[in-house]
Amino acid sequence: MNDIITIGEAMIVFDPSATGPLRFVNSFDKKVGGAELNFAIGCTRLGLKSGWISRLGKDEFGTHIRNFARGEGVDVSQVDFVEGYPTSLNFKEIMEDGSVRTFYYRDKSPTLTLTPEDLDESYFKNAKVLHLTGIYPAIDPVNRRVFEKAISLAKKHGVKVSFDPNIRLKLWSKEEARDYLSEILPHVDILLAGDEEMEIIWGVKDPEAIIRKAKEIGITYVAIKQGDKGSVGYYNDEVIKVEAKKARKVVDTVGAGDGFNAGFMYGVLNGWDLKKSLEFGNTVGAMVVSVKGDNEGLPYLEDVKIFLGEKENIER
Ligand code: KDG
């Protein structure tokens, strides 16, 4: 049985060897990224069981990603390779302050070949949470049929639907994101969103206003991510604001949201109270930004304890 299962595209991430405008960067490190896979890796490192449903190109990069995910302990039994659809690429530009721009080469995503009929009902039945993000339906409208089938399978088997809008404006317009994601939100049980994303979808940025709307449509858990301002959560009629954890140093902000999600989910699935789950999410997010790479900074449980000073770090 998996604690969480997720569907989405992963890609090879080319991380620049130097900061500054990409046009002047001469070498890159080959890494792996993809919001949903990052989340699955984050959950697995903390000790949860995760499964990832996807398609990869039948090429060297696809094999590398599958092996990487498997090496992290993510269940890849629902990942297949497809001919004629090269594994997607993502070149990152990182500035001195850790801010990032991404340049995608993902026009013919292998995930376009995944069909609703490919989803194995028993895989859903044997999971506690289905985690989805707004990236997968943004890649192409064809993915939305799979996305909706996944939600219906989760609902059928009492699996909680967790959702992060993860709005990527290089993949769709604000209007398209708003129209589609506002249709999806009533099916969501756990909403993990940035305040600016909710402003795009619902036109409100204030966490209390977002929570009011979420309550109206029956969302059980809400966590609103506000970057260095912390996070605000809602569960069981309780609203709590938690300060951000200070990162040791910000070198790469990509993946912080996925880290928060993994930490928060770890709390929820372990029955922690809202405050503790939010604090844990903030801590994991703060740890991610100190390491270059989309998922390299995702901590193991022991790393979190050391970061929080709850466990001694023996260096030599
Ligand atoms: O959340 C981090 C992701 O954005 C990154 O790993 C790459 O999935 C990605 C995307 O579509 O930008």
TrEMBL record:
<keyword id="KW-0067">ATP-binding</keyword>
<dbReference type="InterPro" id="IPR011611">
    <property type="entry name" value="PfkB_dom"/>
</dbReference>
<dbReference type="InterPro" id="IPR029056">
    <property type="entry name" value="Ribokinase-like"/>
</dbReference>
<keyword id="KW-0547">Nucleotide-binding</keyword>
<dbReference type="Pfam" id="PF00294">
    <property type="entry name" value="PfkB"/>
</dbReference>
<dbReference type="InterPro" id="IPR002173">
    <property type="entry name" value="Carboh/pur_kinase_PfkB_CS"/>
</dbReference>
<dbReference type="GO" id="GO:0016301">
    <property type="term" value="F:kinase activity"/>
</dbReference>
<keyword id="KW-0418">Kinase</keyword>
<keyword id="KW-0808">Transferase</keyword>
<dbReference type="GO" id="GO:0005524">
    <property type="term" value="F:ATP binding"/>
</dbReference>
<comment type="similarity">
    <text>Belongs to the carbohydrate kinase PfkB family.</text>
</comment>
<dbReference type="InterPro" id="IPR050306">
    <property type="entry name" value="PfkB_Carbo_kinase"/>
</dbReference>
<feature type="domain" description="Carbohydrate kinase PfkB">
    <location>
        <begin position="1"/>
        <end position="299"/>
    </location>
</feature>
<protein>
    <submittedName>
        <fullName>2-dehydro-3-deoxygluconokinase</fullName>
    </submittedName>
</protein>
